[in-house]
Amino acid sequence: MLEKNALTAVVEFLRPEHFYSEQHKEIYTAIVDLFKASEPVDMRTVVAQLRKKRKTRIGGRRLLYRRVNFQS
Description:
The protein contains four helices and no strands. It is an all-alpha fold. It starts with 5 loop residues before the first helix and ends with a helix.
């Protein structure tokens, strides 16, 4: 979400099972689903994808915002 080409570089080898946290697995799965569908990947679309898949326990925008800002 921070760098446009980052997904292209990692989607081939990074899998959800590589993440320890279930929340991170679900977030990554939502991101990959959007990427494979050629949809934009940003906080809004990832939250919408999580809601669509009924993964509301993930934490929504607030968790994603904390994760993105922690990486900065």
